[in-house]
Amino acid sequence: MPPLNTSSAIRRFRNRYRLVVMNDDTYEEVVTFKLSRLSVYILLSTIFVVLVGLTVALIVFTPLKYYIPGTGTDYKTITELKQLKYKVDELEKMNEQNFRYIEGLKKAMQAGNDFIRDTTLYKLDSMELMKE
């Protein structure tokens, strides 16, 4: 097999060709394109890259990724998990608030045991005030 001459291969890629679309009934030229093998290769490669990019973007940035086998969870499960996480966070906040409230009550009850108030004295004082 004869060795491939690189200059002739490059020349073949740059040779210009004409693509003509004709009306079959009237033989009238509808559209004419001037193309080379290189421009067709670049056009097809660009279309391929754009289609692959759009497909990947569609799968990655939309809930379609959950329909691919092997991803593990579906969209409905993820939304339920997010809602449950919000509920757990709220319950943890409420639990912390209740804990603080109970601790405050305990401190108030312990501080109140230092002295005992006799409420009968208050009643007597109020009754004496009423008599006057």
Could you characterize what this model shows?
With 132 residues, the protein is mainly alpha-helical. The chain folds into two domains: 1-61, no CATH class; 73-132. 64% of the residues lie in helices and 11% in strands. The chain has four helices and two strands. The chain has helices at residues 6-14, 37-60, 75-112, 119-131, and strands at residues 16-22, 29-36. The chain has a two-stranded antiparallel ribbon. The longest helix is centred in the last third of the chain and has 38 residues, at 75-112. The protein is rod-shaped. The model has no long low-confidence stretch (mean pLDDT 82).
Indicate the percent of residues in helices: 55-70%
Tell me the number of helical segments per DSSP (H or I, 4 or more residues long): 4
Task: Compute the CA-based radius of gyration.
Answer: 43 Å
Alpha-beta classification? mainly alpha
Largest sheet: 2 strands, antiparallel
**Which term fits the overall shape?**
rod-shaped
What is the number of beta strands?
A: 2
